[in-house]
Each structure stands twice: as C-alpha cells, then as structure tokens.
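Friendly challenge for the regulars: who can give me the structure tokens for this chain first? No prize, just bragging rights.
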Amino acid sequence: MSQTAEINLDQISNQNKMKMARWYLEVTEKGIVTTDDSIKFSKEFIKVLNEKDYRDSLFPETYSWVQALHYVKHQQLRQAFWSFINLYPENETNKELVIKSILAYDEVFKMDEMLVNVFYTYSFMDPEISIIKDGRPEIVRPDILEEKLGNVKEMVAYVLKYREQKELKANKE
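First reply, four minutes later:
Bragging rights claimed.
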C-alpha cells in the first residue's frame, strides 16, 4: 500500500515539474525571433496583437504598483516586468523598487535577457509607440520607443553590475 502511495506522489511531483518547466519556458520565450529568412512571433506576441481587451489591460494610461503586484501574484511575470519597465522612469523611489524587484528575480531568471525579451514582446504594440493598422503594429513614436529601450538598457546595466559584485564577493569568500 505504501509503495503505491509513493509512486503516486512521484507521478504528481513529475507532473508538477513538467508544469513548472512549461511555465518557465513560456515566461522566458522571446516575443520575436528572427532567423536568416523569417520572423517568428511568440503566442504572447500574437495574443497581444490580436486581442484588444488583453492589449488594453497591458497598456493602461497610467501604470501602477497595484497592477504590477497583481501580475506578480498571479505569476504573470512577463506582464509584471513590462509594468516594471514602465514604472521605472517615474521617480527615484520607483527606480529603486524596480531594481530591487528585478534583482530578486535574477536568482530565478537571467533578468538581463528577460528584460530585453519583455521589451521586444510588448513595446511594438504599446499605444504610446505604435498603432495597430491592418493587424500590424506601425511605429508612430520612435522617440518613446528609444526612451523605453534606454530605460531597459539602464536596468540591464544594474543587473550586470549586481552579478559582477556578487561574483567578486563569492570569490573573496
């Protein structure tokens, strides 16, 4: 009897591992991947492009910590990181909170890559930057796109500096 229970627990554990692996791959998936002869869009990119209600929820007029925390709570981390990107430039307090949050996630994800992936997944459909015309995003404010990309680069620089300091500290110990 106990052997049967152990087998069932192992099966449940493996199912959970598979769920977590799928979730991790989904969260870290690039929105746009280019190869020599084609461009591939992720499911998330296509969903944002095609579902106006979803797009509206991702791009509110004003980004808030309440929304970001809602995404975190529901493990919608790409959306949370997009909120972080948009909250970052608001003021110094936001910058500090965003960086601390991102550095905490760097234990699980490569946040430098994650921030860039999230930026390229969502930025082209951001209504501050683009309009959706004939089912395609058309950039109308490249200046805002560049500004947000600059913020992402700054955030990535913090992540890389943090890792470098962490590695130096570990090597000293």
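Helices lie at 2-28, 43-50, 52-58, 65-73, 77-87, 92-105, 111-122, 142-172. Residues 1-7 have pLDDT under 50 and may be disordered. Your move, everyone else.
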